[in-house]
Write a structure and sequence with these properties.
The protein has 400 residues and is α/β, with parallel strands linked by helices. 48% of the residues lie in helices and 15% in strands. It contains 17 helices and twelve strands. A six-stranded parallel sheet has the order 7-12-11-8-10-9, with helices on both faces. It has a four-stranded parallel sheet with strand order 3-4-2-5. Helix 12 (286-293) links the parallel strand 11 and strand 12. The longest helix is centred in the last third of the chain and has 22 residues, at 311-332. The protein is globular, with a radius of gyration of 23 Å. The structure holds adenosine-5'-diphosphate, magnesium ion (MG) and zinc ion. Residues 14, 17-18, 40, 42-48, 268, 270 line the site of adenosine-5'-diphosphate.
């Protein structure tokens, strides 16, 4: 057993690496002669790729991660494993911040992983701490987590990075798009979809997620599904924490078949037997859609990903995105090229729904992969006439 494998067991309690790729990445990071770029699906175990090398290194690994909630989750998990980790953020009580800074000022700090948000990293208040650490040679590595795969390589100025990416295409996921406006009864339609998707797994097992944009939407859909005979629970920020936790754990334990949630649900959730992910409303970008729908079928068994599309949704969400951009620009007092990204990403999502082409191919090509062999794993490849007929029905409806 190598010292790396020993550390995997002794510090993290894992018997083996999750995949050959995870092991390769860890080895490359530990070796440390090249920058490393990793693009793997949610749940693949990317955190370990910097956490394990961090434990083995002299000095501190600085981790940049965008969300305080995600950071807190990771820090809690690390601390539970007795790995010295903490985060400096704007919400930290002064006392805790002071004791962290005290540790950082010592010749050899105890801390192994220091998590910060991008805002904190850029903030003037953090600069002295950062320069002092780096001047004393105490920053062993910089990890950027949850970085969006599109232009991060460019913005980080990585030097000839070693790149590890899992292919985007997942052949066990079946994608389709249903135009909600042309359905006589959308809830019955959703119900039938769920029943069928659950039928793919071992009897009486499996579950899924229905994503809705609003809290009211979650409540309504969960209520309707329950009435139609599917056990469903809403999950959104408007619920009491205890109710939310209960809904999640009931779902995790397989006590409810469907969790009907806003997109706040699912980050860090790692459940292998998710048989379906339905989007009752349009995702805000094709990248988010890939990530959200990708929570299905982690066990490698067939799973279904469906978007219910409506022109009203498209207009509403498009409007909200433009409004949000305008708000940011007003606050900032200037426009930036990258502001357009949110709009183009959303347009890619809309095009995905309105196209007559392979859904898998669109997703793969969006992320820069080649055209995969869909082999009937999307509605278009299964029967292009169905997709055409649906588009025609929607067009007739909108001109009426
Ligand atoms: P990602 O960031 O790629 O979405 P995470 O780093 O959050 O994934 O890891 C997902 C889950 O997998 C976590 O619960 C983590 O503890 C677990 N995990 C990571 N590596 C291993 C491993 N080698 N063996 C078992 N579980 C692992
Ligand atoms: Mg992660
Ligand atoms: Zn296809």
């Amino acid at each position: 057993m190598t010292s790396i494998q020993k550390a995997l067991k002794s510090h993290f309690g894992f018997e083996k690496f999750r995949s050959q790729q995870q092991e390769d990445v860890v080895n490359a990071v530990v070796k440390g002669d090249r920058d490393v770029f990793v693009c793997m699906p949610t749940g693949a175990g990317k955190s370990l790729c910097y956490q394990l090398p961090a434990v083995l290194a002299n000095g501190i690994t600085l981790v940049v991660s965008p969300l305080i909630a995600l950071i807190q989750d990771q820090v809690d998990q690390l601390q539970a494993r007795n790995i010295p980790a903490c985060s400096i953020n704007s919400k930290l009580p002064a006392q805790e911040r002071r004791s962290i800074l005290e540790d950082l000022e010592r010749d050899s700090p105890c801390l192994k992983l220091l998590y910060v948000t991008p805002e904190m990293l850029a903030s003037p208040s953090f600069q002295p701490c950062l320069s002092s650490l780096s001047a004393r040679g105490l920053v062993s590595r910089l990890a950027v987590d949850e970085a969006h795969c599109e232009d991060v390589v460019r913005s980080l100025n990585l030097r000839h990075p070693l790149s590890f990416s899992t292919p985007v295409f997942r052949s066990n996921l079946r994608y389709d798009v249903i135009f909600r406006d042309v359905l006589p009864d959308a809830y019955t339609h959703l119900h039938a979809f769920i029943k069928k998707a659950l039928g793919d797994g071992p009897a009486g097992q499996g579950c899924g997620i229905v994503y809705c944009r609003t809290r009211d939407g979650c409540e309504e859909v969960a209520h309707r599904l329950t009435r139609l005979g599917v056990s469903a629970r809403p999950y959104h920020a408007g619920l009491k924490t205890a109710d939310r936790t209960e809904a999640q754990s009931d779902w995790m334990q397989g006590k409810v078949s469907a969790i009907v949630a806003t997109i706040s649900f699912g980050m860090g959730v790692d459940k292998p037997d998710v048989r379906f992910v339905a989007h009752w409303n349009l995702a805000k970008s094709l990248a988010s859609y890939y990530q959200e729908s990708g929570r299905a079928g982690r066990d490698g068994l067939p799973a279904s990903c469906r978007t219910y599309y409506s022109s009203q949704d498209r207009d509403q969400i498009g409007f909200l995105i433009r409004k949000e951009i305008a708000r940011i620009q007003k606050k900032r007092g200037s426009e930036k090229e990258q502001d357009r990204v949110a709009v183009t990403d959303f347009e890619a999502m809309v095009a995905f729904c309105e196209q007559e082409a392979c859904r898998h191919a669109t997703i793969s090509q969006f992320f820069g992969d080649g055209r995969p062999d869909c082999a009937g794993a999307c509605d278009f490849c299964r029967d292009p006439r169905v997709v055409r007929a649906q588009l025609e029905a929607a067009a007739r409806l909108s001109t009426r």
